[in-house]
Amino acid sequence: MLLDSGNFAVKVNIEAADQLWESFDYPSDTLLPSMLLGFDSKSGKRNVLTAWKSESDPSTGMFLAGLTPQVPSQVPAMDDGNLSGFYLDDNVKQGTKYFSYNFLDKTVAYIDITSEGILKLMYSVNGENWNLSWVAQENSCDKYGACGPLGFVKASESPTSIRECLKGFVPKSDEEWSEGNRTGGCVWQTKLSCESNTNKSVTLRGKGDGFSKMVGLKVPDFHEYIMSSDAEECKIQCLNNCSCLAYAYVNAEFSFLSHAVCITNSFCQMKEIE
Predict the structure, then answer these.
(1) Which ranges carry the Apple domain (predicted)?
(2) Looking at the structure, do residues 14 and 88 belong to the same domain, yes or no?
């Protein structure tokens, strides 16, 4: 039977409370209100949106939209006008993380992923005159891997966003960058002391290295989340690990987290101190 929510449910009979199967457990390219997008790491069950191959071909496309187990959680950025009615249930102990949304008024809505990998939130009052409320990707800065490792994209008013290497890095291939292909990323301009002092103790390897502060950057998809008492301890832990490129400290007073955390491999880059 088809419920008012849009969920197609299979029951033994109409009066039965339990459902044998329901379409909300198997989202395609569209997320309706009350549907769950996320995963249960213990059971292995994962709900994702899957793009069509093209606008006229519903076979499986190239793009998926879902949640990853990284902590803190990452969801597409929304301003205050979009946040009402959206929920993120992140239960670390249970190993579950689910995103959902619902509106209490007469607004109807849906989120879908296009064949180009673009997420859109559409809404309508009483089912008439559908409007675009929110979209990701808004510009080339949202495109995954657009500037490769150790590069960043700077949004601009021009049609083409600015792609640069982080301070202390140079393009891996000048030829590719001059042709507009930045996916190869950047490499160190000067070798770190940490890499040179491989025969020294862990605490001495990073001596002479430091950090260049950067603000307003997105946390990378695959960062490491560790407990830390303060920003200085977070910095030291990163300096003592040659594979750690950067760190960010999250103060629990200004975060949804219940304690202070250190996020490594994000925001700023390690560099040689002159």
Answers:
(1) 194-274
(2) yes
